[in-house]
Q: What sequence folds into this?
């Protein structure tokens, strides 16, 4: 299972006032709130934890074919993992001056994660080309469809494959993570 999330830090700074009364308490556990307030950069800590939770939510939703329901308190972040209902998802987070990107997974085969600017809008084509090259297939035979729970699925020759993929977009950035 795999999930990913991206946060455009400039957009997050202008669109969200996470310091308003009650916001942290709705999203983060007590230990996570302590971690945020103890951080050298609390803004960065908020979006790092948010991204980890979102990526894990996508992986969890895919694994159990859950309808989209999100209770952030169910997801407890540590430094490199997130636990939900006794299950531990490992996370890998990349922090730049422009974005935070997290990937969550349980047992990856081969994870490939890429970040793109929305100016290119080529992230889905890039993914299809990557799968095509990795699997030795014609990229025209590979398609992406979403199921009833809005989970993206990879189809090869109109048959659902076992390739797991996750997409995320926020502000100027889009990303994918794929587990082949």
A:
């Amino acid at each position: 299972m795999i999930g990913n999330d991206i946060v455009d830090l400039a957009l997050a700074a202008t669109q969200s006032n996470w310091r308003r009364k009650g916001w942290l308490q709705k999203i983060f556990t007590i230990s996570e709130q302590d971690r945020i307030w103890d951080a050298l950069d609390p803004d960065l800590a908020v979006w790092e934890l948010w991204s980890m939770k979102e990526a894990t939510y996508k992986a969890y939703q895919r694994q159990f074919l859950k309808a989209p329901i999100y209770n952030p308190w169910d997801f407890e972040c540590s430094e490199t993992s997130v636990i939900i209902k006794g299950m531990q998802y490992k996370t890998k987070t990349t922090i730049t001056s422009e974005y935070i990107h997290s990937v969550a997974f349980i047992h990856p085969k081969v994870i490939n994660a890429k970040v793109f600017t929305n100016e290119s809008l080529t992230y889905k084509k890039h993914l299809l080309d990557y799968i095509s090259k990795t699997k030795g297939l014609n990229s025209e035979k590979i398609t992406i469809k979403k199921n009833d729970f809005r989970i993206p699925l990879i189809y090869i020759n109109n048959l659902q494959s076992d390739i797991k993929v996750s997409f995320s977009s926020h502000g100027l950035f889009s990303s994918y993570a794929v587990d082949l």
Residues 2-179 form a domain with the Ribosomal Protein L22; Chain A fold (CATH 3.90.470.20). The chain has five helices and ten strands.
